[in-house]
Amino acid sequence: MKIDLTDTTASKVNKALVRGRRAIGTPAVGMVLTMVIVTDEENAYDSIKAAEEASHEHPSRTLVVIKRHTRNPRERTHPRLDAEVRVGSEAGTGETVVLRTYGEVSEHADSVVLPLLLPDAPVVVWWPTDAPENPAKDPLGALGQRRITDLYTAENPMEVLDARRRSYAPGDTDLAWTRLTLWR
Length: 184
Fold this sequence. Notes:
- The protein is of the alpha/beta class.
- The chain has helices spanning 10-23, 41-55, 73-76, 104-107, 109-113, 157-166, 175-179; strands spanning 2-5, 33-39, 60-67, 80-87, 95-102, 123-126, 146-149, 172-174.
- The protein has one domain (2-179).
């Protein structure tokens, strides 16, 4: 089931999740974690697919944050949140919420994500591309016990690696390291 919400709030998104679960006959939540994916529109599809595949082994709530930037000067300052709620077969074995933020909401995406986190479940924040220099100090990264980045897409990976080394905090992981497993 897919529910589209335009110019909405986190509270309405939460209600849509409950309504969607009830409509498909699964009112209880049996998720093992909340996965927050911070990406752009271009990489959202592949990121969501990867999260859906992972949800077959680890049922989770996936929150995809896409910070949108409009060219229209009037809309640039207008804060807005659009959401797409997916439950049931639309979301693997969990729930997926695609959050598109506009204007000032993009600068405070953590305040939109926080009410949607599952209680008593670990939070993993993943940046498939363009991770912040210090993931643990990023407002969204601070919500997670685990932060996943990927040097693979960096223009200058050695420079980014050095920055990550300097800002390392327990819970930080880079997928470039896992790709080296066979070599290690």
